[in-house]
Amino acid sequence: MTTLGTTPAAPAPQSVADAASARPHLRYLPGLDGLRALAVMAVMVYHADPDWLPGGFLGVEVFFVLSGYLITLLLLVEYDDNGRIDLGRFWLRRAKRLLPALFVLLFLVLVVTAAFRAEALGRLRGDLIAGLTYVSNWYQIWTAQGYAAAGEFAPLRHLWSLAVEEQFYLVWPLVMIVLLRNRSSWSPALVAAWLTTIALLITIGVGLLHHAGRIGECAVTPDAYWSLGERCLPIADALYLSTITRAGGLLLGAALAFLWRPDALARGPIRRHGLMLDVIGLMGLVTLGVLAWRLHFVTPDGADDVLFRGGFWFTDIATLVVIAAIAHPTARLGRVLGLQPLRWIGTRSYGLYLFHWPIYQLIRRVAGNKLSLEQFAIAMVLTVFVTELSYRFVEQPIRTGEWRSWMRRIWHQDEPTARLVLGSATVVCLIVGGLSVYRLQAAEAGPTAIEAGLADGEHDTVSIDELLAGSAGADVAVRQQRGPTTVAATPTTSPSTPTTTTVPPPAAEREPVVAPVVTEAPDVAAPAATPATAPAAVAPTTPATTVPATTPATTPATTPATTPVTTPATTPTTAPPTTAAAPVEEAPPPEPSPTRVSQLAIGDSVMLGAAGVLAGRGWAVNAEVSRQMIDTVPLMQQLDDGGVFGDIVVIHLGTNGPISATSLDGVLAPVADVARVVLVTVFADRNWAASNNDLIRSRAGGNVVVVDWAALAPQCPGDCFEDDAIHLRPDGRRYYADLIGAAAA
């Protein structure tokens, strides 16, 4: 999908050419294959990069309407021809059309995953079973995988919409049998009206159930989830993936089939209105284009309200009028959409959909990464190649029965070479498949590399309760002595360079920051700005403290140029002359708050990954997965009320969603009196990252320093990032901690 990158939506597997060959009285409509081609291309573009076509996923809604129309039309024609519907024959045709390519897909995904992504086998097992049994949509809802979940290798996530289609194929013929056996008690218009009413009620229900606004974790935005036992199921994903809530398009397509049969149109008076249908159909195509360009699955403010509150309905209506124009015998739109290139794509849309998503996944590693233009071109070449092989040598031979002729020719004629090739290929497939299945059943559904790194980072964080209870300082001291949990504290100084420690002076002694936006990386071999030995909660006691202020962005990245700012040493007060009045005894300085933490870092999962390194350098780290800026506003006030803030506070948020000026200022207000506040920008290929970073940079000045992580992250030396290009590997964690230490010094 689905990603965020992003999740998939499948085309209706019922080809128009298949429909025509299945029933001779159903006129072939090549324009419908052309419409399918446009829809599958929109889906593939969206899956490559949602920014290219934000509403490209609406192609699936077009497929649903097409399926409802064609399947209902086939059943009506079969009943008119034979006086009955042969369920066994209908389901056999569906199986011959759907299963061969699906089996090829599942086999290839299993073998490739076992060979190149073995760590993902444990998670793949459930996806394989769900895909094979056509319940992928319900499985994804139950496991809360998320339509837009971005951080996983998910080569079979796209099977959710095939599951919706197959469930429709199982149920709808039974409904049609009941309707057609009681045909005398209803008219086609009445059935169409009832189906339209049900679809409208589904649309209204989806709109009412939709959670408007930002969606955080279950504990933060509980109204955006359904609780079932100990599970929190996102409402947005359930509304998008479930068969019930996506049945509207299928039912509207079925309603049109009752009213708009091509054979009847050719005989009726409306056949003279082809020009009018062309105009209406063209308007429908334009509407589909506008919707695909304007609608989103996720916006910076959360799930798209327009999509869930009418967007699907308008997509369905626009698709209906296009189908009506294509099916009209004298309209020209069908001939235009039925041109050979579009028809070629449309007849292969099932395979294009099946194979493009896992090929994308192999190229980009995880679902949320966007493809570059070069990667997209490579993916398209591979997709078309694999699709054509499947179409020519698997799908068509099995659907038409030609494979039987092949087998008879190979085994009963003098074809030793063909027999050798076929036998060898069969043996290889059995061996490779057997080994892959063995590895699959032995694999454990363990955490991904990202999840494992974050879980380790949690051992080096302090909770809000620990901070308020005053135990964070002791915890940091212990962590500092033992070093990070996941990444050994590697010395970053050269043998000839002595390690120095700088402790920021109190706010009253600090001079203004020279360059509030840090855009140059410090020399990673000189962590002089990283507090490595000073206890986190100890106030400075040295006579003078050197505070390096980072130079402007013109400083070369390889030279950690800093400007020392020296604060004067405390001068002892001269004793008064003996002839003066007795001196007044000065009041002792106030005791520091027992909860005060000198160096506190607050962030999301990016910081969580580096928590071990930061804790080993004296930082108290409070970081959580999926934390957003708005969630942190009350936490900051709570920490301020508890006297937690000390000399330095680092804040790194904005990876997981958009931030507003109000929420950012709400986070900064409680730390207005803190000596040094370090804001970190966002490095993530997400739609909201640029606007978040502009807002963060605008707050630089005064006591606020901005570390431009968006600009500095690409300069990280070594193997720094996980497959999602957001979370950190060991090299990246050390580099990240170096940057924070330099900015905080």
TrEMBL record:
Residues 481-509, 527-597 are annotated as: Disordered. GO terms for biological process: lipopolysaccharide biosynthetic process. InterPro entries: Acyl_transf_3_dom, Acyltransferase_3. The chain crosses the membrane at residues 52-77, 98-118, 159-180, 192-212, 238-260, 272-293, 313-333, 417-438. Keywords: Membrane, Transmembrane, Transmembrane helix. SUPFAM superfamilies: SGNH hydrolase. It holds the Pfam family Acyl_transf_3. GO terms for cellular component: membrane. One of its GO terms (molecular function) is acyltransferase activity, transferring groups other than amino-acyl groups. Residues 484-502, 527-585 have a biased composition (Low complexity). The keyword Cell membrane does not apply. Residues 30-387 form the Acyltransferase domain. PANTHER family: ACETYLTRANSFERASE, ACYL_TRANSF_3 DOMAIN-CONTAINING PROTEIN. This is Peptidoglycan/LPS O-acetylase OafA/YrhL. It comes from Ilumatobacter fluminis.
